[in-house]
Amino acid sequence: MQKQFNVTGMTCAACQANVTKRVQKLDGVTSCDVSLLAGSMKVDYDEALVNEQDICKAVQEIGYGASAKGENKEEESSFEAQWQERKNHFEKEQKEKKQRLILSFGILIPLMYIAMGEMFHLPMPSILVGMENSLINAITQVILAVIVLIVQKNWFITGFKALSKRAPNMDSLVAIGSAASFFYGILSLYQMAYGFGHGNMDMVHLAKHSLYFESSAMIVTLVSFGKYLESRSKAKTSEALDKLIDLAPKRATLLVDNQEVEVKTSDIQAGDVIVIKPGQRIPVDGTIVQGTGYVDQSAITGESLPVEKNKGDSVISATMNENGSFLFVAEKVGEDTTLSQIIRLVDEAGNSKAPIARVADQVAGIFVPVVIGISIITCMIWLLSGADFSFAMNNAISVLVISCPCALGLATPVAIMVATGKAAQQGILIKSAESLEQLHSVDTIVLDKTGTITYGKPVVQSIISYGSEDVLKWAASIEKGSEHPLAKSIVFEARKNKVPTVTMDSFENVSGKGVRSQKGKDIYLAGNVKFMEENDISVNDRIKQDMKTLSSEGKTPMCFSKNGDIFGLIAVADSIKNTSVEAIKSFKQKGIQVIMLTGDNELCARAIGKQLGVDEIISDVLPTDKEQVIRSLQERGKKVMMVGDGINDSPALARADVGVAIGQGSDIAIDSADVVLLKSSLWDVNTAIELSHKTIKNIKENLFWAFFYNMLGIPVAAGFFYPIFGWKLSPMLGSVAMSLSSVCVCTNALRLRFFKGKNCIVEDEIIDLKIEEEDTMKKEMKIEGMMCKHCVAHVKKALEAVEGVSEVVVSLEDKSAVVACDETVSDEAITKAVTDADYEVISVNNL
Q: Is 448 a catalytic residue?
């Protein structure tokens, strides 16, 4: 069982470590992943041995709050609503922190003035100046310090509570340090009172300079200031998530009984018809049923140019319709939309833990008790060495307040959250922190060919003519009735180049071999060599050589014949994406081995591999063998990334160290992968690797700073260098250093917000082999002179003879003809055809 929990009361990495250790001690718990940033915990456990209540109780026993997610009604709402709730709660906390900070500084400044004004010869009220007024000065300091400590009481409540539960944290260090300063000041205050009562002014003088009330107040105020700055920095880590959430429109327009009705996006149900106009964002996922639009998908996929969307095309939530209007049917709504899934993935990845963070977590788990021990030892050593109690206490308190487990705890998660959010903005979904870390260590990339390196759709590559016939025109005319992908690619090529086609009289599909068609007395065949030879059509040496050459280039050649003679060849192939070539070059520049994996025959695979420049080609691979290829590479010590898109790639994606799925691939492949590319471009793999390198470098910088700061700061605070260099650190400076250390770590991690991957110098083409209805125009002709059915037949025959006309329906009663034709067919051409047949055309109108 895996369950998410909310955890409250955590303030530092030590808290995170304490909660993790406590929960992991429970019988039945296999793993516990606690996120300080999100205030959440993910636990894998055996329901037969432990339940939710036991887990929550264990966390509560060490002084923190815990509840299973979904217990509260508020949490049953959408993720966006939960996120907004968290954001509102954070903003409320920030406001309260700011108010406490302003009040604390408002009192601390006069306290510091009173405590140090006389020392720096600043103007002071006479009642606070001089030996005779020392007690009044001290009591005034006590009153002001107590007010500050009350305002900042949360440090003492949480710190001493954690200490009492034997789970000390950063709050405990601050609370002990501030309390020690305050009570040492109280002790000095008693000494002053005793000195005045017994006339011992030397004691009064000594005690007057040993008051630590300003240090006590300064410690909690400065640490609070640092935590405030730190929380503001941490808030910026989720900017990418905020932007994603803000993309979703709050309201949408439905078409109900032919009336437009505005509703909340959350109220949309699957099956609703939604109206989209220019400038509107698409609220949910669905399929267009009417109209055309140009949709900007850059916010989701990262594509720079708007994509044309027609009837039958899918649309994605949160994308922007820049031009045109259309209706679409809602299919995925609520938590199932693409946007909602992206947001959830980014949030989960940002709160997951990278392996590199484990060292910091282990140190944070013992950090606070060790620091308390060092502080006590520091005080004892200085006392035993003959130093006065004030000096020893100063050093001990400095050790407590300068130590910062927060910097250790924040070094990794802040960078991870920023990086995963930045990746999502560029159309790259990284599912976990571990995947992000693994990306930078990949040394071998295995690429599935079809749909990954190539478009996964066959297109016409070569046309060879052996006579006077227009090969593409007649090939498209012959193949127009076929549903075979290769046939569709030929028809698509003709439409793309505005080549007019002819309506054939008959069409016969010969399964697995080709097609047979007829126009008038002419017999046309299209298919492979075997099909030609079976129909006694001679294939000469020249044609055979051309077919062999085309095959060696990885293309599939098809023969086209008329009345027993081959008049042309058309070679079709799944073309390589432009970005794939550039991406593979970039992989090789990084020293990564690139392997192409394909089920194609060796000849075809080598032809494509040569164009790509891959290091190794593995051909004739059965779907079930792909996982074995990955396994064998791993056994040779390789860190393997697998990139694929099909269902048959799923086992290999799951086996690889990093599995990358193409966003337009199967759902199973996407579920099996660690990284999903929404844009379906291999160049994004390059971007993901670069982002991983930047992130790991950033984390290492943060960890170095966190360890270096504590390793240097604690000895300085303990007075280790005092006998040699005379270095001594006051608790006030220690608290400043402690605050700044966390802020530095957060600020360094935020630099990742400015990461921008290198732009690919080429773009992929948009290949869509669908033959849309819109490609066929309909024209209505009003015709005079038709008297009988023979006239109808004459007009129909005359119109069907026009190139580009696919269908003609003639009505004697309406004296009209409806002509279905290509865009290339002009009004003049069909008018001439009817006029030449001795009939009069009154008008021609587009339908």
A: yes
